[in-house]
Amino acid sequence: MALAVTMAVLAAIGLVVGANARATRALEQRAALVATAQAVEAGIPPRDQLREDRLDGVVAGHAWRMDTEPLDVGDIPDGVRWVPRRVRIRVAGPKGGLIEIETVRLVPTDTPPDTAPGDTESGPPDRSGAAAP
């Protein structure tokens, strides 16, 4: 009887340890995917060089792809200096995990701005609340 109880307890402990090991591996894989996606996002080209394009590569064994395309926001009025672009980053891990991040970047339009005399603004408006220098 004591042997049967001991076997049942050991089997239960084995199930818990196995589940914990699988969960730990899944968490480590997810963290590696997120870290790679963040590294790729940090490498997004500057606003004036961001074009409709597909870039891809491999970082630390993780294959990644970055697609850039216009963001459909409806009609854009004449004279707009900045337009949004959708940036999708997709990272696939070496063991099959997958993560996709989508972000939006404002890029300058190809048309010269209609500036008033003395207007020197060179980027999107600062919404941080900080005083201008």
Structure write-up:
This protein has 133 residues and is of the alpha+beta class. Helix content is 31%, strand content 29%. It has one helix spanning 2-42, and strands at residues 53-59, 62-70, 82-92, 98-108. The protein has a four-stranded antiparallel sheet with strand order 1-2-3-4. The N and C termini lie far apart (82 Å).
**Low-pLDDT runs:** none
Secondary-structure-derived class: alpha+beta
- Strand order, biggest sheet? 1-2-3-4
Helix count, per DSSP?
A: 1
What fraction of residues sit in β-strands? 25-35%
The end-to-end distance, rounded to whole angstroms, is: 82 Å
Mean pLDDT: 80
Shape annotation: elongated
Oligomer class: single chain
Major sheet? 4 strands, antiparallel
Please count the beta strands (DSSP E, at least 2 residues each): 4
Instruction: Give me the Rg, rounded.
Output: 25 Å
Order of helices and strands: HEEEE
Indicate the percent of residues in helices: 25-40%
Task: Please give a quick description of this structure.
The protein is 31% helix and 29% strand.
Walk me through the topology.
Elements: H1 2-42, E1 53-59, E2 62-70, E3 82-92, E4 98-108
Antiparallel strand pairs: 1-2, 2-3, 3-4
What brief labels describe this structure?
133 residues; alpha+beta; four-stranded antiparallel sheet; 1 helix
